[in-house]
Design goal:
Elements lengths: L10 H11 L10 H24 L8 H14 L8 H20 L6 E5 L5 E5 L2 E5 L16 H8 L4 E3 L10 H9 L4 E2 L25 E5 L4 E12 L3 E9 L5 E4 L13 H4 L2 H4 L4 E3 L7 H8 L3 E2 L28 H5 L12 E5 L6
Parallel strand pairs: 3-4, 4-5, 9-10, 10-11
Antiparallel strand pairs: 1-2, 1-12, 2-3, 6-7, 7-8, 8-9
Helix pairs in contact: 1-2, 2-3, 2-4, 5-6
């Protein structure tokens, strides 16, 4: 079924549009009528894409209908002022609410449920544990109305056992969210640079950044334990970037790349990237879609499934919001090589999830 043309918008969206029309223009380069049109268009396209994505949820191989719906999202999210538009804010919040509802109502009895939230935020749940990576309220978009309210975020934090933070940049850290974990007695694991000179930093767990070395991390007040490898990665110069590999109590393993990128002096990171699969089995790999030589990195880690993240970060300039279609010209990416390889790859948007059940080894 092709993307649906929605003639009648939901009442809640129509109300949002009416409110927008009674305020100053969002895009200063447009007049009032032009700006109001952009908001109406965002509502129509998001509604159509949402319907198609729910009819064709994340799966491998990717249905053509789903690919087209993601392209529609790219078009909406590459409006410079997308995060300021009510339909985009509603799309973000409703996806987050769907994740919370699914986590609350759907027990995991086998494999893992993997939820994709905003930017590089993922939550992974197995029968024995729930782990979160780079969880934020979306404040990096710096748009009034886009950032999620604290009470909504608290509902998700209540479902999680630990928060892993890859590095110090604002689209990956959120002090309010981290404090929620700490107040609940749940560990927050981050590299030394994250809040190093702030009081909250004293409550952050600093695991060794050491390639291939398994470390123990107690969770649930010591009633359970994770095995964790923190690879000593980097992002754009001297920024420490934890590449975290977590082994759940059942043995399934999940690797989050953060904002790892290899250039200049940090080409040396390939010394461990190319060797990961020789030391550990990785079930699911969650890389940043814009890292250079993504295909080489995937080969070094050799996962059973790839779930990329960091597409359409609305706090970035338009040309730096890497779209779901990949944009290989940007940083000379190798995304197409990965898509054409034998590695299963599933692209998800905000508020979607995938049930991963490992295939039995022959």
């Amino acid at each position: 079924m092709p993307l649906r043309y929605i003639c009648f918008l939901p009442l809640i969206i129509l109300a949002d549009i009416a409110a927008a029309q009674n305020t100053a223009t969002i895009d200063p380069g447009l007049n009032e009528k032009e700006d109001a049109y952009m908001t109406r268009q965002a509502a129509a396209l998001l509604d159509s894409a949402r319907a198609t994505l729910r009819e064709h949820p994340p799966q491998y191989p990717e249905p053509e209908q789903r690919r087209l719906a993601l392209l529609v999202l790219d078009g909406v999210f590459h409006d410079k002022y997308a995060a300021y538009r009510k339909p985009v804010q509603g799309f973000f919040r409703s996806g987050f609410q769907r994740v919370i509802a699914n986590m609350t109502d759907t027990p995991v009895t086998d494999g893992a449920m993997i939820y994709k939230l905003y930017n590089m935020a993922f939550v992974v749940r197995t029968p024995g544990a729930t782990i979160a990576f780079d969880l934020t309220r979306g404040g990096s978009a710096k748009a009034p109305g886009f950032t999620l309210p604290d009470d909504l975020m608290k509902q998700l934090v209540d479902q999680c056992d630990v928060l892993f933070i890859s590095h110090r940049h604002g689209d990956h850290t959120d002090k309010v969210v981290a404090q929620m974990f700490i107040d609940a007695g749940k560990p927050v694991v981050a590299p030394p640079q994250v809040w190093a000179d702030e009081p909250i930093g004293q409550a952050v767990t600093r695991l060794k950044r050491e390639a291939h070395t398994l470390q123990s991390l107690p969770i649930k007040d010591g009633q359970a334990e994770l095995k964790v490898v923190v690879y000593p990665g980097h992002q754009m110069g001297e920024t420490e970037n934890n590449v975290t590999l977590v082994f759940m109590p059942e043995g399934l393993s999940f690797c989050h790349l953060g904002d790892q990128i290899n250039e200049g002096d940090f080409m040396e990171d390939y010394a461990w990237i190319d060797e990961v699969s020789k030391h550990h089995r990785v079930d699911v790999f969650m890389p940043n879609c814009w890292t250079n030589e993504l295909y080489r990195i995937v080969q070094g880690i050799d996962p059973k499934l790839v779930l990329p993240g960091h597409e359409n970060e609305l706090g970035h300039p338009v040309d730096d919001r890497v779209p779901y279609w990949g944009d290989e010209t940007f940083l000379n990416l190798t995304n197409c090589q990965l898509r054409e390889s034998s590695y299963p790859l599933i692209v998800m948007t905000w508020g979607e999830w995938f049930h991963y059940v490992p295939q039995k080894e022959e």
